[in-house]
Write a structure and sequence with these properties.
Elements (H helix, E strand, L loop, with lengths): L1 E13 L6 E3 L21 E2 L2 E2 H9 L4 E4 L23 E3 L5 E3 L5 H11 L2 E6 L6 H12 L5 H8 L10 E4 L12 H13 L11 E4 L7 H11 L15 E8 L15 H28 L6 E9 L18 H16 L4 E7 L9 E4 L2 E4 L1 H9 L6 E7 L4 E3 L4 E3 L1 E7 L5 E7 L6 E7 L7 E7 L17 E2 L3 E3 L3 E6 L3 E7 L1
Parallel strand pairs: 1-21, 2-5, 2-13, 5-8, 8-9, 9-10, 10-11, 11-12, 12-13
Antiparallel strand pairs: 1-16, 3-4, 6-7, 14-15, 16-19, 17-18, 19-20, 20-26, 21-25, 22-23, 22-26, 24-25
Helix pairs in contact: 3-4, 5-6, 6-7, 7-8, 8-9
Bound molecules: alpha-L-arabinofuranose.
Length: about 500
């Protein structure tokens, strides 16, 4: 019996909706085909954005979208993607698959997509191969309402009013594909570039995201904060030069050189994958400890703007397209990762799964006019109530372990929040491939009256195909009872459960 304690009296922080954010890059079939099919496509679309995909994304309430990369961001020159489409520059996407990039999806199209999704905007600027002037002009083009060369150019291109840029990333992975810089060098460049990310709309200042570490590179975090988060002695409320520091972490069970198949794996690899997913918590603790030294008030957020599984590409597909299937294993990775973010919502202010459609751990896959929802989509659907809720203290009385001798992992993992309507949302993951566990939930004082539950479960490598798109899907979970003191049920092996308790 696993006993889960929920202290509905103890709020642990606000779960910023942006924790449920997404990332879309000019990579493979994410933007082109996945999201954007052009106006004259036979696939139903609105202003070029495919309607089936947009509708499915609206269902999971996408809060924010990051674009145009990734590594692509530090090679992207935004002026190539504006103006009449027929005269936009055509080029080769040398970074991802060597295919033609016709720049038909650019700044205007990105804002159109975000408008259709009803989400916030996160633009990633080019530090690696772009100039300060180029970045500064992009911000002017997007956000300035007055008379200026860039605002006038935007108007000439058909958009009278400025858009709202909620977040602006100053470079991407500048320790790697974004310029192979040292932290000291990048930190100084960051200070310089971010100066020209002007707040033209003082009522809606742009939140600036500084390029953060690769996985566990704490030296990067420390050096960059030292230079970029300046705080006068005793000067409260001064936010230095950034609003957030990014962190990227991908889960690949065999390491970079042997990531393994997305669908063919054994139990050993299952547990190894989940152990690596759980490592996210360690990473957050590690980097937060350093951030706490510079920013004890937690004014700046840790922005995990790339996370998810990264396996070998689907056999027969372009290796540069990073197209992979998504199984129950991905669902469990998503469930435990989102639970971790919820529990660390005091520091993690935004996170973007990589990537939205057809690339890495996508929530949606497409093939021509067909579309399927991956198990990861279903997890986002079950968890969407956490967005904007207050995280609550929760813990298991005794930690049950599962896994193999070499890879023991906790069997059950959870996060809990209090929604605005007074409902408590508990999301639980059972990491065991074979064991189900009876669970009893107890509260500090609450005596629940009713529970509405959903479950996502299946064989560890079950996945949806275009022929059978509903093999894995979230369904109502009936076997849950309200007891005199709480809630009880048995959580099946290899499953994700959400409980809305009132
Ligand atoms: O998401 C794919 C790539 O992974 C991104 O372009 C890059 O930022 C990261 O290395």
């Amino acid at each position: 019996m696993a006993k889960l304690y929920i202290n509905e009296k103890k709020k642990k922080g606000h779960i910023n909706p942006e924790i449920y954010g997404h990332f879309s890059e000019h990579l493979g079939r994410c933007i082109y085909e996945g999201l954007y099919v052009k106006e004259d496509s036979g696939i139903p679309n609105k202003n070029g954005m495919r309607s089936d995909v947009v509708n499915a994304l609206k269902e999971i309430r996408v809060p924010v979208l990051r674009w145009p990369g990734g590594c692509f961001a530090d090679e992207y020159h935004w002026k190539d993607g504006i103006g009449p489409k027929q005269s936009r520059k055509k080029m080769i996407n040398t970074h991802w698959g060597g295919v033609l990039e016709d720049n038909s999806f650019g700044t205007h199209e990105f804002f159109e997509l975000c408008e259709q999704l009803g989400c916030k905007t996160y633009i990633n600027g080019n530090v690696g191969s772009g100039t300060v002037q180029e970045m500064s002009e992009w911000v002017e083009y997007m956000t300035f309402d007055g008379v200026s060369p860039m605002a006038d150019l935007r108007r000439a291109n058909g958009h009278e009013k400025p858009w709202r840029v909620d977040y602006f990333g100053v470079g991407n992975e500048n320790w790697g594909c974004g310029g192979n810089m040292t932290p000291e060098y990048y930190a100084n460049l960051y200070r310089r570039y971010q100066t020209y990310v002007r707040h033209y709309d003082s009522a809606a200042p742009i939140k600036k995201i500084c390029g953060g570490p690769n996985v566990d590179d704490v030296n990067w975090t420390e050096k960059v904060l030292e230079t970029c988060y300046a705080k006068p002695a005793g000067g409260k409320g001064f936010h230095g030069f950034m609003d957030g520091l990014s962190l990227h972490y991908y889960v690949h069970p065999g390491g970079w050189d042997s990531k393994g198949s997305a669908t063919e794996f054994d139990e050993k690899t299952w547990y190894l994958t989940l152990e690596k997913a759980l490592y996210m918590e360690e990473l957050i603790r590690m980097h937060s400890a350093i951030m706490d030294q510079f920013d004890p008030e937690k004014a700046i957020g840790l922005i995990v703007d790339e996370w998810g599984t990264w396996f070998d590409v689907e056999p027969g597909t372009n290796p540069g397209f990073l197209y992979q299937q998504s199984t129950m294993r991905d669902a469990l990775v998503a469930a435990v990762t989102l639970n971790i973010f919820n529990r660390h919502c005091d520091r993690v202010k935004m996170a973007c799964i990589a990537q939205m459609v057809n690339v890495l751990q996508s929530v949606i896959l497409t093939e021509g006019d067909k579309m399927l929802l991956t198990p990861t989509w279903h997890v986002f659907h079950m968890y969407k109530g956490h967005q904007g809720a207050e995280a609550l203290e929760s813990f298991f009385g005794e930690e049950l372990m599962t896994g193999t001798e070499e890879t023991p992992v906790p069997a059950l993992q959870e996060s809990v929040s209090l929604k605005e309507d007074g409902t408590i949302l508990a999301t639980l993951a059972n990491l065991s491939v074979s064991e189900s566990y009876p669970v009893e939930i107890a509260f500090a004082e609450l005596r629940p009256r009713q529970v509405k539950a959903a479950i996502l479960t299946g064989q560890m490598n079950a996945y949806n195909t275009f022929e059978e798109p509903e093999t894995v899907k979230g369904v109502p979970f009936q076997d849950v009872s309200v007891t005199e003191t709480g809630v009880s049920f048995t959580i099946p092996a290899c499953s994700v459960v959400s409980l809305e308790i009132s």
